[in-house]
Specification:
heterodimer; A: about 375 residues; Immunoglobulin-like; Cytochrome Bc1 Complex, Chain D, domain 2; 3 domains; 5-stranded mixed sheet; 11 helices; B: 16 helices
Chain lengths: ~375, ~525
C-alpha cells in the first residue's frame, strides 16, 4: 500500500520537474520591474503596498492564531465577557486610515506623472481590430510616405493545436512588430475599429483600452534597446487570446534608418503594384495571407463556422462577380467580424488573396485579379 | 386542538407542496437546493476552463466555446448560486431570528423563487442555439455584447430581466418582513447581524437592479430597434455601458459579501462562547460599506481613460472601503480573543472565511492603487482577488451557514467527520486553485484567454489540479446534507452550546409553523 503511494508521489514529482525543466522563467512570482521610469515607479509602489499589507496580515493573523492556540475550550479556559470598547474601535479605525493616507500620497504622485502626455517627440497611433493591431506613425510633413502596418500573431496554427512543438515565444510573437526609438518620449494615441481592446506591455507598465469612437493617450520613454512583449488585455471576442504585442526598441539612429527603409518600401510597393501577377504567384501568396489573416474564422479549407463565420467554399460572394469579392475584402462587412482589409493589406496582397479565395478550396472562378484592378477599385470608391 | 385542524397546518403532499408553497421554510429549502444545483453547474463550467488551461495549446474546446464557459460560469455562479443561496438563508432564518411567523409577502415569495428556474433554463439553453450562447464575459461589455454578439443574446437579456425581477421581489419581501414583523422587544439594535446585513443589502438590490434592467434594455434596443446607445458609429458611447454596468456591478459585489459578514458574525460568537465584539460598530461598518459601494464603481474602469481627477476620486473612495472592512475583521478577531473556542465544521469554515477573505481584501487595497492597477487590471491577479473574496469568502460562509443551521432544519446532527473532511479538502483545494493565480497575473497573464504563453504553464497546472480537487470535494457536502436529512443523531433544540438567538428556542427540526404567537420578550437578548 505504502509503496504504491510512494510510486504515485514520485511519478507526480518527476512529471512536475520534467515539465518545468524545459520552460523559460516559468516560476515567476512577481511583476517585472520593467524598462521605463514609470514601470519602476509602479513596481516600487506595488512593493510598498505589498509590504504594508503583509505587515497588517502578520499582526491580524498572528493575533488570531495566538487566540486559536491558547483560547480553546479543550484547555479548560473560561470565556471572557467583554464585548465592546469605543476606545479600541476608534484606534483601529484611525490607524488603517493613516496607513491609507501614507499609501495614497505616492500613488497620487505616480498617477499624475503617468497622465503627463505633453512634449512627445514621436506620436504613434494604435488601432485595435478583431484580432490584430495597426500602428500608424504620425507625420509632420504630409508629403512624406506614411509608415503604417498591421501586426498579426506569427505563431502557427499547428503549434496552437499541438501538432508541432511550441517555440520560446509561443503566442507572444507577431509578423511585424512596433518599432520605437529609445530615450525618446513616444506618445501613443489609441482607438479601435470594432470592439474594445486593451494595449498592454508589462515592461512599460502601460495598459490602456482602445475604444471605438474615443482616442486615449499614454506615453513611454524606453531606456533599454530590446524586444518587449505583451497581449491584448480586454476580452474582444473569439481570438482575444491570440493578438499579442511585440515592440522593438532601437537606438534613435537605428530607428531612423528603419523608418527610412519603411518609407522606401512604401514607394517600392507602389511601383510593383503596376506589374502583372500570374495565377501560380497569386495562389502561393494568397495561401500565406489566408493562413495568417483568415483561417481563424473561415477555418482551414474555407469551411467556416456557420452561421457566424460563413464558409467560403462555393460561396456566392467568393465565386460570383469579382467586384463583390473585391468589395467584401476591401470594405469588410459592417456589423460583423469581417474586417475591411483595404488598409490592412497592400494592393499586391489584396489581389493575391482575392484570387486565392476565388480559386482555392475547390472554388473555380478562373480569373486572376491584378493589383492594378484593386487599385482602380479602391480609387473609384474614394 | 383537533387532529384535523393540525393536519390543515401541515405541508401538502407531493409536488404540489413545492409548487404552491407559501411557507418560508419550504421556499428557503427550494432556494438552497436550486442554488446548490447551480453551484454544481457553474462549477462544471469552471472545470472545463481549468481542463483547457491545464496545459498550453488548445486541447479540449474551441476559443469561442471557451468564452461561453467563462461567461456562463460567472453568470451562473453570481446570479444562480451565491445570490439565491443567501435568499434561501434569509427565507429560512430571518423569520426565525426575529420571531415572525413567516415572511411578510408569502405569495410573492413563491413567485420570486419559481421564476428563477425558468430564467436559468432559458439562459443555459442559449448554448444550444445557432451561434452559441453569450461569449462576452459576465460583464458583457458593449459593443462586443451588442453589435458583435451572437443572436442568442436576446434570450440572455430576457433571462437577466427575470433574475432582476426575482431579486427585487425577494428584497421587498425581506424589507417588509424585517420592518413590520419583528417580535415585541426585538428592537433594530437587538437584531442579529445577519438580519441587519440583509436589511441593508435589500435596499442596495432595490437601488441597483433597475440599473441592470435599464442597461440590458438599452442593449436590446441597440440590437433590435436601431438605437445607438453604445454604438460609437451612431454617436453612442461604449464607455457609458461600463459606467451603467458597474453602477450595478459594484454594489452587487458588496451584496454578495455583506450577507457573508452576517453569517460569520453569528457563528464566531457561538463557537468562541463569547458575545460578538463591537456589535454597534459592526452595524455602522455594514452601512458604511453599503454607502461606499455606490461611489466606487469606476475602479473597475481605471484603464478606460478617465480624466485624472476622476481617477483620483475613485482611487481614494475605494481605499476608504478598507477602513470599515478592517473594523469588521478586527471585531471578529477580538471576539475570538479570550473566548473558549471549539472547532466544529461551521467554525472551521468561518475562521477560513476571515483569513482568506482578508487576503482578498489585501489584494483589493493593492488593486485600488490606480497606477499599479494599470498592471493588475484584466489579469489573473484580478481573477485571484475576486475569487478569494467570493469563494473562500461568500461561498465558504454559505457552507458555514449550512453546517451551522442544518441540525435546526433537519432535526439531526450532520456527520462531523465528513464535514471536517469536506472542509479540509475545500480549504486545500481552494488555495491551490487561486493562490498561484496571483503569480500568473503579476507575471503578465491576461484573464479570459483559452491558451497562454509557455512561461505561465507551471502555475496553471497547479491551479487546475486545485480546481479539480475543490470541485469534486463539493460532492462530499451533497452527501453530508442528504445523509443528515435522512437521519442521524437527534439534534437538541439548543444544538450548539454557545448559540444565542430566537432560532435556538424552537424545537429541532423547526416545526412547519413557528412563532404563531410572538416569543417571550425575555428571550430576546442584546447581541
Amino acid at each position: 500500500m505504502l509503496s504504491k503511494a510512494k510510486l504515485w508521489l514520485s511519478l507526480a514529482l518527476s512529471t512536475l520537474l520534467f515539465w518545468s525543466a524545459g520552460l523559460h522563467a516559468a516560476w515567476d512570482l512577481n511583476m517585472p520591474r520593467g524598462v521605463t521610469q514609470m514601470s519602476r515607479d509602479t513596481y516600487d509602489l506595488h512593493m510598498t503596498i505589498f509590504w504594508w499589507v503583509v505587515a497588517i496580515g502578520v499582526v491580524v493573523f498572528g493575533a488570531m492564531l495566538w487566540s486559536i492556540i491558547n483560547h480553546r475550550k479543550s484547555k479548560g479556559v473560561k470565556p471572557a465577557t467583554f464585548h465592546e470598547s469605543t476606545k479600541v474601535e476608534i484606534v483601529w479605525t484611525l490607524i488603517p486610515f493613516l496607513i491609507l493616507i501614507a499609501m495614497a500620497i505616492p500613488a497620487t504622485r505616480v498617477l499624475t506623472a503617468a497622465y503627463d502626455t505633453t512634449e512627445s517627440e514621436l506620436d504613434v497611433q494604435i488601432i485595435g481590430y478583431q484580432w490584430r493591431w495597426e500602428y500608424r506613425y504620425m507625420r509632420d510633413n504630409m508629403d512624406e510616405e506614411e509608415v503604417s502596418f498591421f501586426s498579426v500573431l506569427a505563431t502557427s496554427r499547428e503549434e496552437i493545436n499541438n501538432g508541432v512543438e511550441k517555440t520560446e515565444n509561443y503566442l507572444l510573437e507577431v509578423d511585424r512588430p512596433l518599432v520605437i526609438p529609445t530615450n525618446t518620449k513616444v506618445r501613443f494615441l489609441m482607438t479601435s475599429a470594432d470592439v474594445i481592446h486593451a494595449w498592454w506591455v508589462p515592461d512599460f507598465a502601460i495598459k490602456k483600452d482602445t475604444i471605438p469612437g474615443f482616442i486615449n493617450e499614454t506615453w513611454v520613454i524606453v531606456e533599454e534597446p530590446g524586444i518587449y512583449r505583451g497581449q491584448c488585455a480586454e476580452l474582444c471576442g473569439m481570438e482575444h487570446g491570440f493578438m499579442p504585442i511585440e515592440v522593438h526598441a532601437l537606438a534613435p539612429a537605428d530607428f531612423q534608418a528603419w523608418y527610412e527603409e519603411q518609407q522606401a518600401g512604401v514607394r517600392q510597393i507602389r511601383e510593383l503594384a503596376a506589374a502583372e501577377m500570374t495565377m501560380a504567384d497569386a495562389m502561393a501568396q494568397g495561401e500565406q495571407i489566408y493562413n495568417r489573416n483568415c483561417v481563424a474564422c473561415h477555418q482551414p479549407g474555407g469551411v467556416g463556422m456557420p452561421p457566424v463565420f460563413p464558409a467560403l467554399v462555393g460561396s456566392a460572394k467568393a465565386i460570383g462577380d469579382t467586384a463583390v469579392t473585391m468589395d467584401t475584402l476591401v470594405n469588410g462587412v459592417p456589423g460583423t467580424a469581417m474586417a475591411a482589409y483595404g488598409r490592412q493589406l497592400n494592393p499586391i496582397e489584396l489581389a493575391a488573396i482575392i484570387t486565392y479565395v476565388r480559386n482555392g478550396f475547390g472554388n473555380s472562378a478562373g480569373d486572376v485579379v491584378q493589383p492594378a484592378d484593386v487599385n482602380a477599385y479602391i480609387q473609384e470608391g474614394q | 386542538m383537533s387532529a384535523a385542524h393540525d393536519h390543515h397546518h401541515g405541508p401538502a403532499k407531493g409536488l404540489s407542496r413545492w409548487l404552491y408553497t407559501t411557507n418560508h421554510k419550504d421556499i428557503g429549502s427550494l432556494y438552497l437546493w436550486f442554488s446548490f444545483a447551480m453551484f454544481l453547474l457553474g462549477g462544471t463550467f469552471a472545470l472545463v476552463i481549468r481542463a483547457e488551461l491545464f496545459q498550453p495549446g488548445l486541447q479540449f474546446v474551441e476559443p469561442n466555446f471557451f468564452n461561453q464557459m467563462t461567461t456562463m460560469h460567472g453568470l451562473v455562479m453570481v446570479f444562480g448560486a451565491v445570490m439565491p443561496a443567501f435568499v434561501g438563508l434569509a427565507n429560512w432564518m430571518i423569520p426565525l431570528m426575529i420571531g415572525a411567523p413567516d415572511m411578510a409577502l408569502p405569495r410573492m415569495n413563491n413567485w420570486s423563487f419559481w421564476i428563477l428556474p425558468f430564467a436559468f433554463a432559458m439562459m443555459v439553453s442559449t448554448m444550444f442555439m445557432e451561434g452559441g450562447g453569450p461569449n462576452f464575459g459576465w460583464t458583457f461589455y458593449a459593443p462586443l455584447s451588442t453589435t458583435y454578439a451572437p443572436p442568442s443574446t436576446t434570450f440572455f437579456i430576457f433571462a437577466v430581466h427575470i433574475m432582476g425581477a426575482s431579486s427585487i421581489m425577494g428584497s421587498i419581501n425581506v424589507i417588509a418582513t424585517i420592518l413590520n414583523m419583528r417580535a415585541p422587544g426585538m428592537t433594530l439594535m437587538k437584531m442579529p447581524l445577519f438580519v441587519w446585513t440583509w436589511l441593508i443589502t435589500a435596499y442596495l438590490l432595490i437601488a441597483v437592479m433597475p440599473v441592470l434592467a435599464g442597461v440590458v434594455t438599452m442593449m436590446l434596443f441597440d440590437i433590435h430597434f436601431g438605437t445607438s446607445f453604445f454604438n460609437a458609429a451612431g454617436g453612442g458611447d461604449p464607455v457609458l455601458f461600463q459606467h451603467l454596468f458597474w453602477f450595478f456591478g459594484h454594489p452587487e459585489v458588496n451584496i454578495m459579501i455583506l450577507h457573508a459578514f452576517g453569517v460569520v458574525s453569528a457563528i464566531i460568537p457561538t463557537f468562541a462562547r463569547k458575545r460578538l465584539f463591537g456589535y454597534d460598530s459592526m452595524v455602522y461598518a455594514t452601512a458604511s460599506i453599503a454607502f461606499l459601494s455606490f461611489i466606487v464603481w469606476a475602479h473597475h474602469m481605471f484603464t478606460v481613460g478617465m480624466p485624472l481627477a476622476g481617477q483620483l476620486f475613485f482611487m481614494y473612495a475605494t481605499m476608504l472601503i478598507a477602513v470599515p472592512t478592517g473594523v469588521k475583521v478586527f471585531n471578529w478577531v477580538a471576539t475570538m480573543f479570550r473566548g473558549a473556542m471549539t472547532f466544529e465544521t461551521p467554525m472551521l469554515f468561518a475562521i477560513a472565511f476571515v483569513v482568506l477573505f482578508t487576503i482578498g481584501g489585501f489584494t483589493g487595497v493593492m488593486l485600488a492603487i490606480t497606477p499599479v492597477d494599470f498592471q493588475y487590471h484584466d489579469t489573473y491577479f484580478v481573477v485571484a482577488h475576486f475569487h478569494y473574496v467570493l469563494v473562500p469568502g461568500a461561498v465558504f460562509s454559505i457552507m458555514a451557514a449550512t453546517y451551522y443551521w442544518l441540525p435546526k432544519w433537519t432535526g439531526y446532527m450532520y456527520d462531523e467527520t465528513l464535514g471536517k473532511l469536506h472542509f479540509w479538502l475545500s480549504f486545500i483545494g481552494v488555495n491551490l486553485l487561486f493562490f498561484p493565480q496571483h503569480f500568473l497575473g503579476l507575471a503578465g497573464m491576461p484573464r479570459r484567454i483559452p491558451d497562454y504563453a509557455l512561461q505561465f504553464a507551471n502555475f496553471n497546472w497547479i491551479s487546475s489540479v486545485g480546481g479539480f480537487l475543490f470541485g469534486f470535494s463539493q460532492l462530499i457536502l451533497l452527501f453530508v446534507v442528504i445523509k443528515c436529512v435522512k437521519g442521524g443523531k437527534k439534534a437538541t433544540d439548543q444544538v450548539w452550546e454557545g448559540a444565542q438567538g430566537l432560532e435556538w428556542t424552537v424545537p429541532s427540526p423547526a416545526p412547519y409553523h413557528t412563532f404563531e404567537t410572538p416569543p417571550d420578550p425575555k428571550l430576546i437578548h442584546a447581541q
